[in-house]
Amino acid sequence: MISKKFYINIIIRIALLLATCFAFLPFLLNPERLFTNISILILLILQITLLFRYINKFNRDIFEFFSNLKTNDVSFAFHDKAFPNITAKFRDEINFIRKQLFDTRELIEIQQSYFKTVIQNAQTGIITVRNNTKIDIINKTALRLLNLKPISLLETLKESHPAFYNLINQSSAGTEKLINIKSDNKTIPLSVRITEIKQKKNAFKIISFQDIQSELDEKELDSWQKLILVLTHEINNTVSPITSLANSIEKLLQDKTQNTISANEITDDILKKTHDGLHIISQRGEGLTRFVNNYKNISTQKKLHIEKFKIAELYYNLELLMKKKLEEKKITLNINIKPFDLDVNADKKYIEQIFINLIKNAFDAIHTNVGIIELKAFKNDNKKIVLVISDNGCGIVDDIQNKIFVPFFTTKTNGSGIGLSLAKQIIRLHGGSIEASLNEDNKTSFIIEL
């Protein structure tokens, strides 16, 4: 590691020191040679000082080089003139390490520049917050959506967007929420997602959000179109026969010249047909009234009574309630709850009604001699309660799977088409979700997440 030149210099300096010491001995006890003694002593001290300085200079150079490496200053070269006292092989190894550090630092800077460019130009708003106080990154989209200039503290959001500030400050990792903010004199609906990472002593929240107004408008338009189709269909089904019957009754009470017949000309047959027609009109009118009332039920905001209850209590009450029907149809009801004492905060009355409707739907779907309905409950990875009802019935046709939650859509002859719509509305009021799926075993499942 140390070059021969360095060792030779040290040996020469030590040899000179020894020579000076031996030269000093003859004069040491001679008081008449005081000046000579002092001169030789000074020379000795000077040689010792120069020796230490020579050694220390090499140590300082090495220390400075590694200090520069420690502070990532890889521009400090380990060249011949600066370090003449080490071997060429050792110098090459050090330079190789220096180059590796330089390349690594350059790669990190390129990656940081790349990710910074991607983040700044992303169409999603991105904010990173350190320890719930300092904002490290806030990209252009975030500033535009929030109508802000660059900020460095989370507290700054409190005045302009208090709801958004509270969501960031109080929410934990995995939070997904829709929130409305005021920006540039208009309300913007945002879909917000919060994740967390920890690095050493710092905790970072990464908040990503985007304007979903266009998606909501598209969904709203699609919902209206579907609803209008259903309303039009139902009203036409009611009004068309009423109009036809009214025309028929009108013709019964007209003569061949389309003039109204007299009371004497009204026969029992005409009266009977008129009565039957009016009866049908009355029934169709009542049907339309029921339809309107069903629409009122599905559009009225429900009030929830939230309480904590055991899921086992809910499921076994359902089993007792449906016991007679299960025996009649020879259907087995299996219950699987993990853990068995799992509980949930919800409106028990509404959740029970949803499951009653889903079990009745399962009854209608099962046409096999070995009918099975399964009720399951567990906690998912996001710590949310999942309630599942499955059956081995005829399943849901792919063409209608995306329509089953549309109000008034039904495949049953006497169905109202509001059961699943109401279920979805109630679950959404709980802040949860409900979806239908068909697995490989042809089992239909309704999955509720609360």
Count of all domains: 4
Main β sheet profile: 5 strands, antiparallel
Structural class: alpha+beta
**CATH class descriptor of the largest domain:** Alpha Beta
Write down the Rg: 44 Å
Sequence of strands across the biggest β-sheet: 2-1-5-4-3
Strand % is 15-25%
Order of helices and strands: HHHEEHHHEEEHHEHHEEHEEHHEE
The CATH topology annotation of the largest domain reads as Heat Shock Protein 90
Mean pLDDT: 76
- The CATH homologous superfamily of the largest domain is called Histidine kinase-like ATPase, C-terminal domain
Total count of strands: 12
CATH architecture of the largest domain: 2-Layer Sandwich
- The low-confidence runs, each spanning 5 or more residues with pLDDT under 50, are none
Question: Which geometry do the CA atoms define?
Answer: elongated
Number of helices: 13
Cα separation of the termini = 68 Å
